[in-house]
Amino acid sequence: MDLDTKILELEAKACFDFFWDSKHTNTNKNSKGYGLVIDRTNRLDMSSIASVGFALSAYVIGVERGYITYDAALERVKGTLKTVYENVPHYKGFLMHFVHMETAERYRNSEISTIDTAILLNGALTADSYFDDPEVHDIVKKLYDRVEWNHFVVTLHGKKVFRMAYNPDTKEFIHYWNMPAEQLMMYILAAAHHSIDQDTALELYNSFERYAGGYRDYQFIFTPGGALFCYQYSQAWFKFQDYVDVHGFNWFTNSVNATLANRAWCIDHKHIYKTFHENSWGLTACDYPNGYRAFGPEPLGWNHKPEKHNTDGTVAPNALCGSVPFTPKECIDALNYLYHNHPKLWGEYGFKDSYNLEEEPWYCDNYLGIDKGISLLGIDNYLHGTTWKYYMKHPLIQKAIEILKFRRRS
């Protein structure tokens, strides 16, 4: 496939620069927040632990691509891991979602988050696999070992599922992972952990609802909100392309169809939304003119009850970047279109978060850590497979594959 991938290299380097820049990452070695990464550029005092997880993988990519030296990356990685282990608040090993950049203390009324802890661990395991350093190995092991996955398991309607989050103020749990979304990584991370036996690991993986549906001829297991990031995040680390589960199901193919359906829905509704057309699509969670929201096309809905689409016409470039491994031609064509036709969408750190042409043309001024993260990992995995290579070779991931009875795709 002869594709113009120069835009991918441009965006990947810009995404890396976002994470490496001291404007977005605490580089003060005397600070309790050394290594923490901002959640978004319009709130520089707040770090997202998920942004840190993406950053840890970004530093591996940076060395492999020649952006930074091995020693510089190792220093940043070691300091970051030490900060997370020693200073970021946690409950049963699960980390606070948002913390102060300087102090690593809880930010406002942030929750303890399972999925954001998982993203952090994914980045940590990638770094652990890449850097041959005893201190890195020691801290990553301690971070991983202290997560008590079993404490967040609950029986819901006769099935074991993970709880989603924990409120340290009320000391109550928040919601459940009982639907298909971005949490596939949690089943993998938990499967290899000493607190989860094999029967429980398999039950957790098999217990969340599978909502089957489609758009046009694209059939897939869909996430209730329809946002593309749910089909991307776990696959930024685990190479599902190479595996089927115990039922013979392949999640990579599922994400291919979800991405094509997302594009098709936008094209079919271009007469309603001025932003949409063949090279302007991609509904996901992003900033929009009135705040932040998770957008999605049909199919979507909870508990097997179909719901109408959820969009105001906002398109996010990170939706395209994260899906480059699934549908390279469609995504690269769209990214090239955006780069050449919407200069206001491009800035110092590559594509800004989103745009909307429905009324007055609106271009987001912000960059978000998780959106730059999924953009970088999606692009680099397609071009070079860096994160896939080092994450998949980690002994814990290989152990999880065996426990969950995943098998190589024939």
CATH homologous superfamily - what is it? Glycoside hydrolase 144 (GH144)
- Distance separating the two termini: 23 Å
Q: How large is the share of residues in beta strands?
A: 15-25%
CATH architecture: Alpha/alpha barrel
Q: State the helical fraction.
A: 40-55%
How does the helix and strand content classify structurally?
alpha+beta
On the 0 to 100 scale, the average pLDDT is: 98
CATH topology group: Glycosyltransferase
Total domains: 1
CA radius of gyration is 20 Å
Summarize the structure.
The chain is α+β, with helices and mostly antiparallel strands. The protein has one domain: Alpha/alpha barrel (Glycosyltransferase), CATH 1.50.10.
Task: Characterise the protein shown here.
There is one protein chain. With 410 residues, this protein is an alpha+beta fold. It has one domain (6-408): Glycosyltransferase (Alpha/alpha barrel), CATH 1.50.10. Helix content is 41%, strand content 16%. It is built from 14 helices and 19 strands. It has helices at 6-20, 49-65, 70-86, 114-130, 134-145, 184-191, 198-207, 229-232, 251-268, 317-322, 328-341, 369-383, 386-392, 395-403, and strands at residues 38-40, 43-48, 90-91, 94-95, 98-100, 112-113, 153-156, 159-167, 172-177, 212-215, 218-221, 243-244, 285-288, 291-294, 346-347, 350-351, 355-356, 362-363, 407-408. The strands form 8 sheets. Strands 6, 7, 8 and 9 form a 4-stranded antiparallel beta sheet that branches. A 3-stranded antiparallel beta sheet has the order 1-2-5. Strands 3-4 form a two-stranded antiparallel sheet. The model has no long low-confidence stretch (mean pLDDT 98).
